[in-house]
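INTERNAL AUDIT FORM
Audit reference: QA-55
Scope: verify that the stored structure record matches its stored sequence.
Auditor: D.O.
Record contents follow.
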Amino acid sequence: MLEHASPITRAWVLHPDLKTNHARREAEPALEEAVSLAAALPDLEVVGADVVRLQRVQPGMLFGKGKIDELNATMKAADVELVLIDGPVTPVQQRNLEKAWGVKLLDRTGLILEIFSDRARTSEGVLQVEMAALSYQRTRLVRAWTHLERQRGGLGFVGGPGETQIEADRRAIDEQLNRLRKQLTKVVKTRALHRASRAKVPFPIVALVGYTNAGKSTLFNRLTGAEVLAKDMLFATLDPTMRKIVLPTGDEVIMSDTVGFISDLPTELVAAFRATLEEVLDADLIIHVRDISHPQTEEQATDVHAILQSLGVAEEAPIIEVWNKIDLLEGDALDAVLTQSARTDDLYAISAVTGQGLDPLLAAIPDKLKDPRKTEVLRLGFADGRKRAWLFDAGIVTEDLQDEEGYQMTVFWTEVQRKRFERL
């Protein structure tokens, strides 16, 4: 029996460029990123894209009537079925635009949720997606659809009229969110056990971070030999993947590939996906991978640093910056990047595709993991056998004395090792 391929949905991408928003991103690169976001969804064909200049937002329709009619004619001619708007759209605006154009409409948050839903693999990732989607859906219940304003009839024996459909739907969503939170708590506890077991292994964790589509997964595959999905596609990786690798110096480290960062990530998604970055919270070293060929590489780097600071890891773990995709540069642009990397500490220019520049990067990792160490004296009881064993496994015990109360241990360790020990 032949399998039928999923039907292809014809989509059009719009980036509203609001003149009064002085903090807005540059329109053309923002539209290009939005098109790339759309391309990350399977069964979707982007048949057109436009920047729509706006003097002000129309509360009920987002765009003015003339622009809506103009776009309607354009999209009808292209047989468009789905419109993706790269920005926030209120429920009322969504309903009115869908009615005016006769299409389905998704805003930026809805589009990213669709991508997350398609990409999530682990139990925690799937639960986080469902929770984020429900939280988003809950905000769309306010007068979004006329059928939600009907009242459910009660038998009339108690009180006034029955609850409205909006209230019933919202209550159903809240109940489902509570169920998901309970499931997530169990999953997080299980992962906490896995992290505790990893803490017993004294191998340092090296986390790859960066803006989405910077080439982290390609670099991860080259270094580890893993078959992680690596495509020229935004959000190709959602769930952290970890592998142990042996560096040329003989040192062993755990390499972690993480979800890509993105500007203007809606707050409900930042909260939902904080857990996908938990490997970064444990990292002994962070490698920030940048697509140095991208015209917005500086802005992307700023976004990544802001997220790292919000996670509280930017001050703790050392950071190496990697300028990736030098194979896409040539002439003066390539010379400038190579010169800058040669003159700057903790900066390496590489191509994850060709392997150029990887040897100096790999040689630098062990040196960055050798943080300043200091001597401390610890008191452990006889019941703290697991902690004592971890200290010996880490090779940081310089003196071990036993008395009637337990052990007095002198250790020579890094700040990262101390924090990991405290989490045991």
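Auditor finding: record pair retrieved intact. The first strand starts at residue 9 and ends at 18.
Action required: none
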